[in-house]
Give the backbone structure.
Amino acid sequence: MECKVTDLSVRDIRFPTSLEAHGSDSMHADPDYSCAYVVIQTDGEFCGHGLGFTLGKGTEIVCCAVRTMTKLVVGKRLDDIYKDFAGFWRTLTSDSQLRWLGPEKGVIHLATAAVVNALWDLWAKIEEKPLWKLLVDMEPEKLISTVDFRYLSDALTKTEAVEILKKAQAGKKEREAEMLANGYPAYTTSVGWLGYSDEKIRKLCKEALADGFTRFKVKIGADIQDDIRRCKVVREEIGYDKPMMTDANERWDVQEAIDWMIQLAPFKPHWIEEPTSPDDILGHAEISKALKPYGIGVATGEACQNRVMFKQFFQANALQYCQIDSCRLGGVNEILSVILMAAKFKVPVCPHAGGVGLCEFVQHLCIFDYIAVSGSLEDRVTEYVDHLHEHFKDPVVVKNGCYQMPKMPGYSGEMKEESLADYEYPTGGEWQKLFNEGKFKPE
């Protein structure tokens, strides 16, 4: 890897998903799934592709933040980056002026994720492996060398992390063969967006069952009577023998969350996702304690800003399901630290996905977790949303309700050039058409 980074570019890519209420929930009524799409060019054969997920407005802000990082990346030798990836990650997150915009949270961290995701995609392509395989094949000490343990040593030391990986060496080949044969279990959220009619929910539940899905999620939180009706509709279609998860998307106060979920307890929700502010660790702990007698777990992490907050969620017993997000944390390096902490605290990792490219990314992460870290599928499942995969060169494949193993080198985030041309905002052909039809107004 003697080559250097010669360019880092970013594009504002948006899809008009609000037109059909795709992605709608109790806090985000009209999302237009979007991303800051990053390409890292080198003077060698390969380039890296990454992205940071957004909901439309504000994507231009993330793009601007990415551009501020250009000088930190362009001109660097790849050997120097990957030999001390933890050190390079700290360089990105600890610039003495840029860090003031975080530190390690908010828009600047979304930009970090986009850049870091592209660097991992590049590394995997150079090694001619899909990302999950690159991670699985690394020696424990090498893998741990990519993680910045600052702020974590009171919960997880490097020595402990290496031991977790070494302990999981036994059975790795068998688990990899199992994944290749069967895939990783998924649940579908596509049946339960808040803006969907009851008739559409019934239709989508029937289709998902026919496709082999056995786990389903319903968006809730805006109106209790509406939620009771919609949960009833889903249970009528899927029965009570299959897990049904619920997701409030940060809607409630703490006591409100408890009272609301007790009313929905007869529908046997497997978990309540993001019941309150994603920053309220003690609030999540209180909700977890109150709902335990009802058999309802608490899941969160989609909007958890960094590894430090995850550390405290684990320490406070504030979540029963850890939902890493590939574009909220600062890329794979930081996600590895959370997966390892989850293993130590014995909390199942159930990644958040959907959006633009999130399914393509997280399939690698959950597969790695099973093969090389946890060695368990008990109470573990990864979100799947059936939107926008056609825009990727290596889209996810789900069969019989399971993610199939990606085999192409890279992190699966490279988009088709025609999709980029059509959906770049605001100049893309599809957006110009929508403006002319009066369906959207340029910002």
